[in-house]
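Exercise 7.
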Amino acid sequence: MSIEIKVPPVGESITEVVLSRWVKNDGEAVEMDEVIAELESDKATFELTAEQAGTLKTVASEGDTLAIGAVVCKIEDGGAAPKAAEAPAAAKEEKAVVAEEKAAAPVAEKSGSSYATGTPSPSAGKILAEKGVDAGSVQGTGVDGRITKEDALKAEKSQPKAAPAAAPAAAAPVVAGERNERRQKMSPLRKTVAKRLVSVKNETAMLTTFNEVNMKPIMDLRSKYKDQFKEKHGVGLGFMSFFSKAVCEAMKDFPAVNARIDGDELVYNDFVDISIAVSAPKGLVVPIIRNAESLSLAQIEKSVIELATKARDSKLTIEEMTGGTFTITNGGVFGSMMSTPIINAPQSAILGMHNIIERPIAEKGEVVIRPMMYLALSYDHRIIDGRESVGFLVRVKQLLEDPARLLLGV
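Solution. The predicted structure, written as tokens, is:
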């Protein structure tokens, strides 16, 4: 009896997946609930498991795009045992054949060759030496394969003919540099990202406002308490937790930044689910920190580390990437000085962090050197006005430059 293994439903909006890799090979024995393949959707990677023990019979190939419910493979019950029984017999047969070949080999050597084979006669050797012909390249026609004078003379005449054969290779044109190109099928994740980004550009009134923040107060605070913080909470104190808390506080004054458009209605959220843009091996993903407004700095840092690790290992679930009311992306880790991030629809705004550069600024009438970061807020102008977008970013700047207010919520 055999059963069919089909593509399971993996998400409400997912209609197809790609068979990215077979973990087990065709004809291989599998156990119940053993992982046999990996499926990749436009959001995550899933493992396909065996629903019974038996022998795997693949139907789809790696790289195939499969609809939900399509047959991926079959598992035949009890088909693996015969193959295991046949293996010793096949091994014995192979050993017998090898033994026969080894037994026959010395006989062939004795009957087909002798000390004279390939050895030129004195006159033949002299001719070959004068003409620079290697004796090994001459087929002897004498007794027991000995090279005769006639063989050497023929080799003398045929040797010049080999030169033209090498001429085409020498005359081939030499091209400086390579102009190769290769084609690669877009992954479901990349196709979805491309489709959504173009859709956002075409369907929203996106605008970006910029500001800069002096990171010295936060950097001083981290330097002072980082050891105690890590000892107590088991995680390092990074910048993402400060920015997440600043965003949550600023949204209390500017709730439209945390809202979205749904048809003819505006949907305001009384919670903040922050999407953190993470660069994963298969592309950009945005896992979500739920209810960030109620989390401490330590809890946010732990969530960031957990989600980033899952993203790198392709272990994020659909639930961990579904939803989100606001996105933070940090291009500064790659050295970005300034950029205009694209909104993560259906959200209405996204905050872009950039690299920290020491620059001269005016402070209390004096020029001082401070670690500065540019901030960029891209927003949907249909729901967020210029006053709100600028006010929100200024509020974030104020909270980051005075962490005491951030921690006290004032």
